[in-house]
Write a structure and sequence with these properties.
Blueprint: E1 31-37, E2 59-65, E3 74-75, E4 80-82, E5 86-92, E6 98-104, E7 113-114, E8 130-131, E9 137-143, E10 152-159, E11 173-181
Parallel strand pairs: 4-11
Antiparallel strand pairs: 1-2, 3-5, 5-9, 6-7, 6-8, 6-10, 10-11
Amino acid sequence: NLANTYGYFETDASGKRTVQYNTAAGTNDKTYTIKVYETGMKKAAVETAAEVDIHGNDYDSVKVKVEKGAVTISASGDGSYYIGDEITLSGTNTDSDQIFLFITGPNLLTNGEDLKQLPNHIAAPGDNPVSVKTDNTWEYKWSTSGCGLDTGAYTIYATSDSVDKSSLTKVEYATVSVNLKQPFLSAVPSG
C-alpha cells in the first residue's frame, strides 16, 4: 500500500535522487500524488513523518497513475485453420511476467486443457507458461499437427496466472476463437 508512506532521501551533488516504488497485486489502481519536501534535517534526526517540519520549505509533487494490468491474445490468420497448420498466438500482458494458455472445445474437459500439453489431455491449469518480454508482449507458435483435436470450434484462453475456466474471476485473461478443419487432397486427371 503506497498511501501515506514516507522516507528520507539525500540527493547527490547535482541535487538529484532516484527513488523507486514497486506495485504489487494488492496495490489499488488509482492516481497517487508523490510529494518531495526539503527538510533541512539530517537523516539521523528524522524518526517519524510527524517529526518532519515541512512548513515554509521548498517542495514539489508529481501524480502517478497505477492502472490494473490487462491481457490480450490474437491468432495469426483468419481464425480458420486446417489441422496441421502452425498458428502463432501472440498478445500483451501488463499484469504479470508469464502467460498461461488453455483450450476448451469439443471432447475436451469442461474447465479446459493445457494447450502446450496436447495431445495429452492435461487439465488446466497447466504449469508451462510462456514468458512475457520486457515490452509486455508474448508469442507462442502452436503446431496443430498431432494435437489430437477433432474438427470444430475451440476457444483459447490466455491468463495472467495458472487457473482453469472456473477461476477466471481471479485473474486477467483474454480469449481467441479458432476453427479447426480437416485437411484434404484433391486430384484432377490431366488430359
